[in-house]
Amino acid sequence: MASLTWTDSDATAVDTARVLAADAVENVGNGHPGTAISLAPIAYLLYQKVMAGDPADPRWLGRDRFVLSAGHASILQYTQLYLAGYGLELDDLKGLRQWGSKTPGHPEFGHTDGVECTTGPLGAGVANAVGFAMSARRNRELFDADAEPGTSVFDHYVYCIAGDGCMQEGVSSEASSLAATQNLGNLILFYDDNRISIEGDTKIAFSEDVQARYDAYGWHTQHVDFTNDFTTYEEKVEELYAAIEAAKQVTDRPSFIKVTTIIGWPLPTKAGDHSVHGSKLGADEVAGLKEKLGFQPEPFAIDADLVARTRENARQRAAEAKKEWEPRYEEWRSAHADKAELLDRLLRHEAPAGLDEALPVFEPGKMATRSASGKTLSALAEAVPELWGGSADLAGSNNTTMSGVKSFLPQERSSHDFPGAVGGRTLHFGIREHAMGNIINAIAMDGLTRAYGGTFLVFSDYMRTTPRLAALSNAPSIFVWTHDSVGVGEDGPTHQPVEQIMSLRLMPGLDVVRPGDANETAQAWAQILRITDRPVALILSRQDMATLDRSEGTGFAAASNTAKGGYVLKEASAAPKVVLVGTGSELEVALAAAEKLEADGVPARVVSLPCVEWFHDQDDAYQAEVLPTDVPKVVVEAGVTVGWKDLLGANTEAVGINQFGASASGKVVFEKYGVTADAVAAKAKELVTD
Fold first, then answer.
1. Out of 26, 433, 520, 613, which one is annotated catalytic?
2. Residue 609 neighbours by CB under 8 Å, 6+ apart
3. Is 174 part of the annotated catalytic residue set?
């Protein structure tokens, strides 16, 4: 086991991080200094003594991953990125939580070098860390499956710091339970047991034994007590380092290290007070801290030579790690030319060359888009080896299982239905929608593979923060949400989404895709895989719907137009007097309504609109060609009608459902709520002026 070298210079560097945290929060007038001050030894230990990383190459493949689940304490991470030389300078710390700075209130992926993921809602980072650990195992099996355990250039550790708030949020429980099931021996979680949240002592709402909980999950657990059972305070860095080294030796389960601390220690009068959790300390307290630690009273007055030493240490550690890693990497590339070619493509964020050729073509008939999606995934399995995913215990309903592939599971956890393998591709999240979303996000931010997670659309509410965080992070997460409307039928209003689709369209940076038949579904998957800078919600039907005959002479446009987001599916018999716009299963309602209008002498164009966002990505001329501003439009979608005028223009009306559903067959519910061809045709006639 490696030994720790800890000098007076290291202790001074820790104190420097404390002082910088206090000054940064004081400077902006708000923030969370307490945790950053008391956890400075842990963060410094990780960045300067434990983790593999390269400040000059923050996305180096061989690096360990760090997640600050207690994201409100962002200055804890920023000070270490500053000391290690990841591109943050003193002015960036002075700009904490201010407009245009590299140091936002919570860490943001893609915004600050060295930040692996966007953590905001408490507990999300724990689930992200689980996702990173799963991603590491999948990458290893995809690129270097024959390597002995611990010897691959793709092996690395994932470290996460979480607090009491993270432990109280249910998503951390969901993810931690799954991590144990997955035997994620590359994951090490630190729990800052400081017993403080915004409302004060956590005993008013949180009384469980968290370490016992993790024991029950099946994690390897340890406890390092800085308080010596609340008698004296001793920052036991060597003991903590030994605990980390011990955790690394446990390869068959994740590790949990409880660190009992006092928030804000060694503040002279406010250590342990909940006021230091989320407020500036005040000039007197900051001055007292600096005097106690032997620092100059002026703000940000630190030893530049010390910072130079910490940066040089980080540089040397990176150089030593890469000196050992790079020859092995080159040896791997030479021995695995095909895998190296795949890796290079994925690093370029490119879809495979044979993507379109791999897509299935569905014959005319009837098929639910969830079924078409499942068949498409199976067809893409060989052509898109980076694609993997599953669902929250709804594989048979979501159709998220590729045929012929094993499950991503320790082999001993195989079931009769799902044989497992460490290199499997079918994910089983259990009934844990929220954790699933955060895990998918982490895999997307890790950057090599593409993962999807499925559940019912109505349960997107359980995981609402995850597409938002993905969009904020420009992460190409894929959310597969089936059972898209009142067409669910007899399950009733609790399972029938009404407001979800339109509300998801309100989320900036999220592509909401609702294909109108089986071939649009296949084409939608291809476009999703081409897009690598934002997430997508793929919304699919439970009920069968018409698969259109798009052969020459039928009058139906090719499904490849799906990539444009909206297109003229069937042209009117003459200059259109009305445009009917359909999405998802209601596309066939629009087509039937057009037939009625044409029979009554009203030329009606039908436009398929599988994705508003993709359509708006097209140039203005194309959009105006498909949806002329001077022609009235009627949209039909089995959901709330609010918003369509904003999306498609003032000359737009909608047929939809503005109330909760009911228990009955899907066909009956559609009829009772007026989502019918007759209703659409009647609405269109009201708008036609001549």
1. 433
2. 565, 566, 581, 582, 583, 615, 635
3. no
